[in-house]
Amino acid sequence: MNQRRDHDYNEEARTYDATRGGDLRAIAAAEALHALLPAGVPVLDIGGGTGIVADFLVKLGHPTTVIDSSPEMIRMCESRGTVPTVLSDATAMPYENGSIDNAIMIWLLHIVDDPAPFITEVARVLKSGGRFITTVDKLMSNNPDHDRARTDAPELISRLCREVGFAEGPRSSFVGHGQRNDPLYQLAVFDRL
Ligand SMILES: C[S@@+](CC[C@H](N)C(=O)[O-])C[C@H]1O[C@@H](n2cnc3c(N)ncnc32)[C@H](O)[C@@H]1O
Predict the structure, then answer these.
(1) CATH says 9-192 is which class?
(2) Residue 118: CB within 6 Å of ligand 1?
(3) Chain-centre distance for alpha carbon 104
(4) What is the pLDDT of residues 82-124, one digit of tens each?
């Protein structure tokens, strides 16, 4: 699986939400996404985990499906009973070319070894005109002095997205309420040409 080995999301699934700001963080993320996504149009939440953000997106009127490679995160998501799920690696999703309306990646690209296959795959499955929103520089938001690889650096993600046919729009952000120091997380917004 294309993911760094410092987290086992199967082991973390039960405690994940409570240790990541819980509902307060998820509501802030969902409200920022709500302002950027067309009402009533399906959204694919890639690396959507327990579905805590997706659940609030559904409540805000966006039919949202979570796709994730961790069976335990998917199990937690299914227990909500509000969000359809797909167990799959995000670099090889079970969708036809150009079949997905909109896609989001919240807190995914900072934990992968190489973001390129994730960007290539989301570009493949998105419809022309579809919107892709991803967090960028997640670790910098938590701690500007961190020394980990910036696999979600904004300039890197912008370049990769341009190369596979996205146009970039204005950035947005959300406050990580419920987390230490209420960090401000950046959202990069791309439209499939
Ligand atoms: C930091 S969590 C974020 C979860 C959710 N987006 C949120 O904001 O609460 C990262 C998630 O990405 C999933 N993930 C990691 N690598 C993946 C891959 N290659 N394909 C699909 N999901 C992956 C993990 O299982 C985990 O659920």
Answers:
(1) alpha beta
(2) no
(3) 4
(4) 999 999 999 999 999 999 999 999 999 999 999 999 999 999 9
